């Protein structure tokens, strides 16, 4: 069962599993409906005979009274075992990433109805940043929209879509309704904009002159431009990220301690997972590799094709350059007072690439020697691409200071 | 054996025979064979009886037809007998020894039944023999060296197809290899392979090593569990009939494929974990028929220690389970059976951690279902988060049944009517301060208070009537049940419930 262990990619396996699970459990509910005392629409015998099939399913009168008489007594529910979600969520409250809370604020500040964001995060991280770009962008975006969330360290197996993050909208009600409020990442943006404390979410605040056709055209143009930037990030920068984290020494110094070590203490499992993870990343790189250039020195050949490191880095550099120019002298890509979705997406990578900021004390508590990994990442080719672009670097710092 | 009828055999052949006569002849010939056998048996007994103190020396033992069985393997069985009887012993002693060797050969399950045993005087012309020498011959035809089974099974909410391959007497020492593959609706796939060998040619002491990979849908807790791993164990059957198993197992468990409505408790435990544990099982089975007992008792305990010290792994606990069952025959073929089960999961501290680790969903007990507490759904008892049964750390369950023979079929048939009442509690370990992880002392206090909590109130229970059919392989039950007392959220089942299994409460 290959539920994606790759933190970057989501496969359809899990959703298929989930759907098949629910379909097998369906008969259970049907049978429960028939075997239990079913309130009958017509308690008195009908003069007109019903079709045989329905009368067959009717519960005879005496049986119905019997069914209604039991159980004789219902005691209060059994309390949950220790490790159950509620106590866990309470313990994780200290990780609450509401923009107002400072590290010194009381851990139990979040009210019980606070939604929980399940993501890749090291519980010991002092800066409370997820170490996964797809998670970090959501963490940032929710912070931009001032939606306080409880952060829950998790893994892809827990997610309804097979990839993190996902959100449980109301932790307390979910315990009675069976996790009904689960929002997978593909529906998270809509949920966030609906639940934002900030008026009208991201895109069209300060739209007083909405009627102005030129403004509307401008907005459409902005949207199209943002889409282009996002696809640049999703392809060029993502590929460089995948390459750097899985095909350079950073795999052992950063990816391994982040994704593999916490999964299990067992060498056996760690070895298997690290193979799976690397294979998934390689497959992902090959899938998106379109070039057929063969001449560069740092190509690594795999069975399915060629991963051209030089090409990957060149593309990423071009993408960062485009973003740097796109940002211009502005504070945010959104062009508004508050950062938007594109800012979150870009921060997903820049936030991590420059995480080993040599700030001394910040490395403490990250544990497992991954602090070294972050520094290596910053010094890597990918890191230097961001490092030397002042606009992107300052953009990152603004977000870290303002929202984390 | 000659008789007078042998003389005029040709005339008899010429004569036409009618059916009646044929039947009579057949009966006569059978009677004759029986009497011959009885007589020879009697004669043997008399012969042995009168010669029981006759000094004999077993000079040789030959096992014939066992082409694939190793000589060294058989020598381990027979050498002690040869040594013991070389200096001369009585005929009786020799026969007792040969009888036990015979049973040993049977137990390996590699020879066809019956194995024949003959005694003979060795050839007198052989100068190395003496007058007291006795040669023993076993005609032990080997069973087929492999068996392949395929089939389909249908059970409670489950259908599956399987392929089973058994290789017997693999290296000529009664080693066996068993490979099993099945795919199904609830156990989506399961592949296992086991190698088993007797130790020092002792059929009661065996060593087994095996591997398993499986994928099981656990709809009571909205997930699928993938297992990969292996185990090794020593199995010992004491002369008194007690079975002991002691082993080690290591499993990679992966909780994945969550259903859409999975609760946070299940989501939190999703992912990988490694269980490394040693375990011991003791079974003392004294029931006349485990699937439909009418008298006798059973005692079974299972102890498991995971993650302690050098065991490592991701989970640390001690699990103790005990089961006892008894059957009492009553007049008119009626029998009364009762059973009691209980278990405790005691959290331990993993190497390198400060506090005892809290139990995970896949380590906790589940209770309820047609084969334990009837009248409840599978995993229908105990704590739940939303609709998910997330299991408990302590449980106790008990049941009592009266089994009545069906009037026309009588007590010999494997079908009974049953009236039962059964119930149980399944509880999670509670910490007084829910926010803090427990230290070792608090855990011990907690376990005690949780066990005490088992007696709080009437246990969740159900009663009902049903039909029981004891097939040689498994027991089938169809019951009409009503839950009497339940806890909020527990899933009782009113109405019919079907159960298949080998172990019932």
From TrEMBL, chain A:
Regions of compositional bias (Low complexity) in chain numbering: 10-32, 96-108
Region (Disordered): 1-58, 89-114, 196-223
Phylogenetic lineage: Eukaryota, Fungi, Dikarya, Ascomycota, Pezizomycotina
One Pfam family recorded for the sequence: GST_N_4
Domain Thioredoxin-like fold: 133-246
GO biological process, alphabetically ordered: mitochondrion organization
Alphabetical list of InterPro entries matching this protein: Mito_Protein_Transport_Metaxin, Thioredoxin-like_fold
Source organism of the structure: Pseudovirgaria hyperparasitica
Recorded GO CC terms: SAM complex
Descriptive protein name: Thioredoxin-like fold domain-containing protein
UniProtKB/TrEMBL annotation, chain B:
Annotated GO CC locations: mitochondrial outer membrane
Start-end of Basic and acidic residues biased regions: 10-33
Region (Disordered) residue spans: 1-34
Keywords: Membrane, Transmembrane, Transmembrane beta strand
Localization of this protein: Mitochondrion outer membrane
Primary site of residence: mitochondrion
Gene Ontology biological process terms in this record: protein insertion into mitochondrial outer membrane
Domain Bacterial surface antigen (D15) per the UniProt entry, residue ranges: 169-504
Membrane topology: Multi-pass membrane protein
UniProt similarity note: Belongs to the SAM50/omp85 family.
Protein name: Bacterial surface antigen (D15) domain-containing protein
Organism whose genome encodes this protein: Pseudovirgaria hyperparasitica
């Amino acid at each position: 069962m290959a539920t994606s262990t790759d933190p970057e990619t989501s496969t359809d396996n899990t959703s298929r599993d989930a759907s098949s699970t629910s379909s097998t459990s369906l008969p259970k509910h049907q049978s429960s409906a028939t075997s239990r005392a079913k309130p009958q629409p017509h308690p008195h015998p009908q003069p007109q005979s019903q079709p045989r099939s329905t009368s067959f399913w009717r519960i005879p009168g005496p049986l119905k009274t019997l069914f209604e008489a039991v159980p004789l007594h219902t005691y209060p529910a059994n309390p949950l075992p220790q490790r159950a979600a509620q106590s866990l969520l309470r313990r994780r409250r200290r990780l609450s990433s509401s923009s107002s809370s400072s590290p010194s604020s009381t851990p139990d500040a979040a009210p019980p109805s606070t939604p929980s964001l399940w993501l890749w995060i090291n519980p010991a991280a002092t800066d409370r940043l997820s170490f996964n770009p797809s998670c970090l962008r959501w963490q940032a975006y929710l912070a931009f929209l001032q939606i306080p969330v409880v952060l829950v360290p998790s893994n892809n197996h827990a997610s309804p879509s097979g990839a993190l993050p996902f959100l449980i909208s109301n932790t307390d009600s979910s315990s009675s309704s069976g996790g009904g409020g689960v929002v997978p990442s593909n529906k998270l943006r809509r949920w966030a904009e609906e639940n934002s404390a900030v008026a009208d979410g991201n895109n069209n605040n300060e739209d007083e002159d909405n009627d102005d056709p030129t403004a509307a055209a401008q907005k459409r143009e902005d949207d199209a431009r943002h889409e282009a930037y996002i696809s640049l990030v999703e392809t060029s920068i993502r590929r460089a990220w995948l390459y750097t984290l899985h095909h350079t020494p950073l795999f052992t110094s950063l990816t391994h301690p982040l994704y593999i070590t916490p999964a299990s203490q067992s060498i056996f499992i760690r070895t298997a997972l690290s193979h799976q993870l690397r294979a998934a990343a390689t497959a992902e790189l090959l899938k998106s590799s379109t070039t057929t250039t063969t001449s560069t020195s740092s190509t690594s050949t795999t069975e399915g094709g060629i991963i051209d490191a030089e090409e990957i880095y060149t593309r990423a550099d071009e993408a960062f350059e485009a973003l740097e120019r796109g940002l211009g002298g502005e504070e945010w890509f959104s062009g508004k007072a508050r950062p938007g979705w594109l800012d979150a997406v870009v921060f997903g990578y820049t936030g991590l690439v420059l995480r080993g900021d040599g700030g001394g004390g910040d490395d403490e508590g990250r544990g497992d020697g991954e602090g070294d990994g972050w520094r290596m990442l910053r010094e890597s080719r990918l890191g230097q691409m961001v490092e030397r672009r002042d606009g992107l670097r300052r953009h990152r710092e603004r977000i870290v200071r303002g929202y984390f | 054996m000659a008789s007078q009828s042998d003389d005029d055999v040709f005339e008899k052949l010429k004569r036409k025979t009618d059916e009646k006569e044929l039947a009579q002849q057949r009966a006569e010939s059978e009677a004759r064979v029986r009497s011959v056998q009885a007589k020879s048996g009697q004669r043997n007994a008399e012969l042995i009886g009168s010669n029981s103190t006759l000094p004999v020396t077993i000079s040789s033992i030959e096992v014939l037809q066992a082409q694939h069985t190793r000589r060294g393997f058989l020598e381990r069985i027979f050498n002690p007998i040869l040594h013991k009887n070389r200096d001369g012993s009585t005929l009786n002693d020799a026969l007792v020894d040969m009888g036990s060797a015979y049973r040993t050969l049977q137990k390996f399950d590699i020879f066809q039944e019956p194995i024949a045993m003959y005694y003979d005087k060795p050839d007198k012309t052989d100068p190395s023999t003496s007058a007291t020498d006795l040669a023993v011959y076993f005609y032990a035809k080997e069973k087929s060296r492999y068996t392949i089974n395929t089939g389909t099974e249908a059970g409670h909410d489950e259908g599956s197809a399987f392929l089973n391959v058994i290789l017997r007497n693999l290296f000529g020492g009664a080693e066996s290899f068993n490979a099993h593959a099945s795919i199904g609706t609830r156990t989506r796939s399961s592949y296992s392979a086991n190698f088993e060998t007797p130790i020092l040619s002792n059929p009661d002491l065996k060593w087994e090593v095996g591997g398993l990979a499986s994928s099981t849908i656990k709809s009571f807790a909205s997930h699928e569990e993938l297992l990969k791993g292996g185990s090794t164990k020593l199995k010992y059957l004491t002369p008194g009939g007690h079975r002991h198993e002691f082993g080690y197992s290591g499993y990679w468990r992966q909780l994945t494929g969550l259903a859409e409505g999975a609760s946070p408790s299940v989501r939190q435990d999703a992912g990988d974990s490694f269980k490394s544990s040693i375990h011991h099982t003791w079974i003392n089975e004294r029931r006349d028929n485990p699937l439909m007992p009418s008298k006798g008792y059973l005692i079974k305990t299972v102890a498991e220690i995971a993650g302690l010290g050098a065991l490592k792994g991701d989970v640390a606990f001690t699990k103790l389970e005990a089961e006892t069952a008894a059957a009492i025959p009553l007049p008119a073929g009626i029998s009364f059976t009762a059973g009691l089960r209980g278990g405790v999961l005691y959290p331990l501290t993993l190497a390198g951690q400060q506090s005892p680790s809290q139990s995970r969903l896949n380590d906790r007990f589940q209770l309820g279902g047609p084969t334990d507490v009837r009248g409840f759904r599978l995993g229908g008892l105990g704590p739940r988060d939303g609709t998910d049964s997330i299991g408990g750390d302590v449980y106790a369950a008990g049941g009592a049944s009266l089994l009545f023979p069906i009037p026309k079929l009588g007590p010999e048939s494997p079908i009974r009517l049953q009236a039962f009442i059964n119930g149980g509690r399944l509880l999670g370990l509670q910490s007084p301060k829910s926010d803090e992880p427990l230290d070792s002392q608090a855990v011990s206090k907690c376990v005690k208070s949780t066990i005490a909590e088992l007696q709080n109130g009437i246990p969740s229970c159900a009663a009902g009537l049903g039909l029981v059919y004891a097939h040689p392989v498994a027991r089938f039950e169809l019951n009409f049940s009503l839950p009497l007392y339940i806890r909020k959220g527990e899933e009782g089942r009113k109405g019919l419930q079907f159960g298949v299994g080998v172990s019932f409460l």
